[in-house]
Amino acid sequence: MKEQLIEWLEISGHWAFIISLAANTLISLLAFVPSVFVTAANLSFFGFAEGLLLSFSGEMIGVMVSFYVYRKGFSFLKKKKVPKNTMLQNLSKTTGRDAFMLILALRIFPFAPSGAVTLAAAYSNVSTGIFFSASLIGKIPAILIEGFAVHQVLKADWHIQLIMGIGSILILVIFWMHKRRKNKKLQE
């Protein structure tokens, strides 16, 4: 499967760049889907340095597109009254240096859901410039950590890759079941 994907990307040529950027943007818009798989494809196809650069570029494009889309969506919701003392009300008051430091801290941690950070920032009053600069600075170490981790997994024996893949799927299933159970309790 991996070889077929790489072969298809080789045939695609320059389209592989566009596909990678589009995939990162789509993942950013979906908010809670990890981009690690796109990073793995980029590292496999383009090599370590070029793959990291492409992943970083794609994530930054995705972050800005999703910030803009979420902000437009939230402008509609803000016209409606949001109950006081909710997390969204508190986030909407975050601005300036506090917003910059919060976004930066959340971006540096590579496995924090990037979409959640973008959603929270889009709902807040943080300026686009502060959001972009904090995301830009924070994404550099995050993509490096993610890239090195993915690189090590790609270098591992296929047995280890299989175990990690199955483990990732199990974690996602457990998380989904937990969320589903929690939603059922809320509905009761």
Automatic annotation (TrEMBL):
<dbReference type="InterPro" id="IPR015414">
    <property type="entry name" value="TMEM64"/>
</dbReference>
<feature type="transmembrane region" description="Helical">
    <location>
        <begin position="99"/>
        <end position="123"/>
    </location>
</feature>
<keyword id="KW-1133">Transmembrane helix</keyword>
<protein>
    <recommendedName>
        <fullName>TVP38/TMEM64 family membrane protein</fullName>
    </recommendedName>
</protein>
<comment type="similarity">
    <text>Belongs to the TVP38/TMEM64 family.</text>
</comment>
<keyword id="KW-0472">Membrane</keyword>
<feature type="transmembrane region" description="Helical">
    <location>
        <begin position="45"/>
        <end position="70"/>
    </location>
</feature>
<feature type="transmembrane region" description="Helical">
    <location>
        <begin position="12"/>
        <end position="33"/>
    </location>
</feature>
<keyword id="KW-0812">Transmembrane</keyword>
<feature type="domain" description="VTT">
    <location>
        <begin position="33"/>
        <end position="151"/>
    </location>
</feature>
<keyword id="KW-1003">Cell membrane</keyword>
<dbReference type="Pfam" id="PF09335">
    <property type="entry name" value="VTT_dom"/>
</dbReference>
<dbReference type="InterPro" id="IPR032816">
    <property type="entry name" value="VTT_dom"/>
</dbReference>
<feature type="transmembrane region" description="Helical">
    <location>
        <begin position="158"/>
        <end position="177"/>
    </location>
</feature>
<dbReference type="GO" id="GO:0005886">
    <property type="term" value="C:plasma membrane"/>
</dbReference>
